[in-house]
Amino acid sequence: MSLLPLTGKSALITGGAKRIGRALALALAASGADITITYRTSADEAVETVDAIEQLGRRAFAIECNVRSEASIRVAVPAAVARHKRLDILVNNAGLFETAPLDQLTLAQWDAVFETNTRGPFLVAREALPHLRASKGRIINIGSLGGIRPWSTHAHYCASKAALHMLTEVMAKSWAPEVAVNCVAPGWIQQDEEDKNAAKQFAAKTPLSRNGAPEDVAQAVLYFATNASFVTGQILTVDGGLGL
């Protein structure tokens, strides 16, 4: 029987305790990787996710980390490496989504979104870089269709994700050939607690006639983590055609 494709490797997923982050952590674990997840306020969910990963036969570790804090990142990344003795995959998933009219955006709202969605991935990737170079690893950023298409009530979010897409390309060019860097840009991803009327509206606009699921994002992340040996600097939109 062949080994799972990520057997012997270690992955760090920021914001991996719940929602899309949890799906990414479970998918990488199911492919053989040992997992570290970070969380900020979701301690209970982090415990549940660690337990679910361990039930898959993988080692798992959760650590509190605020990606807006350089000091917090400088504790979390070395802790992840110390726990699993290596780092092969970094998934920058932690993000902040907020709705606000453009003319009513406050400076605090703007800064909070950019510090989380753009500066955070830069800081985590920079801290992880020596370990990823040593393992010839991969970075996968989680962008958004909003970084490609303008959403009038999400200016700060859209701008932050567009910046993350460009940062992905710069990282890919700067850190080659040792580290491949790519980005998955989801469209509307259905979460259980989200408004059902909005879900129906988005599904009706989508050429594939359904909304995305966290597992759809996970499949794209797995592609970059396992198969894309000659792919770097790419933004892969996972939206069922919604952005067309």
Give a brief description.
With about 240 residues, the protein is of the alpha/beta class. It contains seven helices and seven strands, in the order E-H-E-H-E-H-E-H-E-H-E-H-H-E.
Write the layout of secondary structure elements.
Layout: E1 10-13, H1 19-30, E2 34-39, H2 43-55, E3 60-64, H3 70-84, E4 89-92, H4 107-135, E5 138-142, H5 155-175, E6 180-186, H6 196-205, H7 214-227, E7 235-238
Parallel strand pairs: 1-2, 1-4, 2-3, 4-5, 5-6, 6-7
Helix pairs in contact: 1-7, 3-4, 4-5
Write a structural description.
There is one protein chain. The protein is built from seven helices and seven strands; from the N terminus they run βαβαβαβαβαβααβ. Helices cover about 45% and strands about 15% of the residues. It starts with 9 loop residues before the first strand and ends in a 6-residue tail after the last strand. The chain has a seven-stranded parallel sheet, with helices on both faces. β4, α4 and β5 (about 140) form a beta-alpha-beta unit. It is globular. α3 runs parallel beside α4 (about 105-135). The longest helix is centred in the middle third of the chain and has 29 residues, at about 105-135. It is of the alpha/beta class and about 240 residues long.
